[in-house]
Amino acid sequence: MSKLWVDLMIAFRSLVQHRRRTAFLGTAIAAVTALLVLLTGLSTGVRETMIDTATTLSTGHINVGGFFKVTAGQASPVVTNYEKVMADAKKAVPEMAFAVHRGRGWAKVVSDTGAMQLGITGIDIKSEPAFASVLRIASGKLEDLAQPGTILIFDTQAEKLGVKVGDALTISAPTTRGTNNTIDVRIVAIAHGLGLLSSWNCFVPIQSLRALYQLNQDATGVVQIILERRDLEKIPEISERLRKSLEAGGYRLMTADPRAFWMKFQSVTREDWTGQKLDVTTWEDEISFMTWTLKALDGLTIVLILILLAIVVIGIMNTMWIAIRERTREIGTLRAIGMQRGSVLWMFLLESLMLGLFASTAGALGGAAIAAGLNSLHIPVPISVQLFLMSDHLHLSIHGSMLVQRIVVITLVTGLAALYPSLRAARLRPVVAMSHFG
Amino acid sequence: MNPPMSMRMKTRTTSFAFALAAALVASALFHGRAVAALTTPQMIDILKIVDDRQRNNGDWRASAYLEQKEKDKVDVVYETEYFRRSSDQKFMILFLKPKSSAGQGYLRIDKNLWFYDPSVGKWERRTERERIGGTNSRRSDFDESRLAEEYDPTDEGEEKLGAYSAQKLLLKGKAGLDLAFPMIRIWIDKDTKNVLKRQEYALSGRLLRTSYYPKWKKQHSASKNGDVWYPEEIRFYDEVEKANQTLVLIKAVDMKALPANLFTKAWLESKSR
């Protein structure tokens, strides 16, 4: 123990003695670590924002949706007898935090000045308190969405339709039997956009959606299951368990297909069956059309991390070579008075590891501070970026475990980078080293 | 003995001033009574008169010509025939011209408005906000007036509309009804109780349409045993798309009883076969 303490003290003093080199290399390592922390924070932030927004706006962590077909060629995103489905799902998924049901539809929304095709989500606003926490209402009252014949739209839609709170919209869509039906709704709230999902989605009370599609009270579009955050890693396992449980319970299930429900209309319509079939999907399936952004961001982050690590490795190796060259006579003297090769190697390695640890810790803390600063500034992002970010401002998510991980990685990389030069230093013969003039 | 001239003058001036003051007070009182806000029963009575004058209490058949003018588009004229039955509030419009629209129609049964397009052979359920044939007219523009049943009035005083003295009312739609417009500002001729002008609003207060009723005509109805008044000409001005306007001319009104099977989907479908 005392030997390790002595070694540590020697390494520390050596770093202090060569303070210019230490400061230069330490700053570089700290900067790279901070950059790494910010990059990972951005990637994690986007992922978390996407999950939170998507699981509030359009999907649960796990969904029990499906299609009802009156005839083989006509499919509607309807789940009949949903209360029983919900109860069976609760039994199969004890990890469930809560579950909600929502109506699903796709309809033409017409104002006095324009029209657009929108996804219509039927919602019981009273049973979804989390909904209010994600949305930012620009005008109107979200609570009024509890009244039948009302609608919540997003600001970009309001702009395109030329409407404001209090104006009426007409929604037209084909019912499960193919007859076009129309309802009038009053705009009670306009919310700020939340990216791609909010650009083509709007919300009406579930009873209004049922009136539009002429559905019974026991019909809905999907049962959305929300899990605790700690169980999110187990989603594939839980959804598979739920699928098997529903099959065992006598429900007919669709073949697993990792796509959003609206992307399945064509294939379902082509299939030769009628009646009800359930479909179990995860949040990633339901927003599969946009998770490529996450994958792209992850890929980009990995490439950048590799480039940064390469810079660190090259920088450290180069600096170590210079240090060894400068300290060749010192190494020779130490070897001449009896220091073993292993000790020389250890001394240089320890010095690098210590530098890596101090610098990466400072860098990680600095990165976390910058991230906190950026978050507090609520920096707005361009609309094109909002589409995929699902948020109108930049959010970086920094976790303690992630900071520790980055510090350990950078310290180890620093140590590894110093390994070869340290080995070369340890191999120096005392006579040659002592006669070195550099 | 006669009083001196100055005293007589003073007495006359005092009398004149008193008379003038009395006249002003009387005028103010009289005028005050004339412009006092109408009570709700009074306003409802006015609306009932408006409704009653247009009510037929029987069947109705008429031709309607709809001329639609839109910015940067060719004017379109539709020739239609429309039918209604007071007893069960049934209603139907059949498009006769142009050829591209012939056979299309709207049918209102059981408070549901259906649209039929023979080119696809399908019925679609529409709401009262539906623009008839894409023009700026609504189904209710052709139907019997039901203002007293459907709206709650607020008095907005009197106003001169050209030579006419009009009672101005703000009407707010009653809850739970399918109405083309939730809020209407209406000018009713004080003498005849004919509607002169309407401004139709969204609930947000946005003005959507202004309508003028320049020509009213009456016709004797046997079923009512009295005269039925109807607007021979209506002009609709789109207040959202300012350049758009619709002219409606109502002709050939016939109030004889219609066949029982007229207000059916089958009848309307048969007109395009």
Explain this structure to me?
The complex is a heterodimer of chains A (438) and B (273). By secondary structure, chain A is of the alpha+beta class. Chain A folds into 2 domains: 2-52 and 291-434, no CATH class; 61-286, no CATH class. In chain A, 54% of the residues lie in helices and 19% in strands. In chain A, strands 1, 2, 3, 4, 5, 6, 7, 8, 9, 10 and 11 form an 11-stranded mixed sheet that branches. In chain A, helix 2 (19-57) packs across helix 13. Chain B is 21% helix and 43% strand. Chain B has a 13-stranded antiparallel sheet. Chain B starts with a helix and ends with a helix. Chain B has 273 residues and is an alpha+beta fold. Chain B has a single domain (43-268), classed as Lipoprotein localisation LolA/LolB/LppX (outer membrane lipoprotein receptor (LolB), chain A), CATH 2.50.20.10. Chain B has helices spanning 5-35, 40-54, 147-150, 265-270, and strands spanning 59-69, 76-85, 90-97, 105-109, 112-117, 122-126, 151-161, 164-173, 183-189, 195-201, 207-221, 226-238, 245-254. In chain B, strand 10 and strand 11 form a beta hairpin. The chains are: A alpha+beta (438), B alpha+beta (273). Chain A binds chain B through residues 112-113, 162-168, 170, 172, 179-184, 186-187, and chain B through 122-130, 178, 182, 202-206, 208, 240-241.
Features:
heterodimer, A: 438 residues, alpha+beta, 2 domains, 11-stranded mixed sheet, 16 helices, elongated, B: 273 residues, outer membrane lipoprotein receptor (LolB), chain A, 13-stranded antiparallel sheet, 13 strands, 21% helix, disordered N terminus
SS element count, helices of chain A: 16
Order of H and E elements of chain B: HHEEEEEEHEEEEEEEH
Total strand segments of chain B:
13
Count helical runs of chain B. Answer: 4
Shape of chain B: globular
How far the N terminus sits from the C terminus of chain A, by CA atoms, comes to: 35 Å
- Spans of chain A of at least 5 consecutive residues whose pLDDT stays below 50 are none
**Biggest protein-protein contact in the assembly:** A-B, 19 and 19 residues
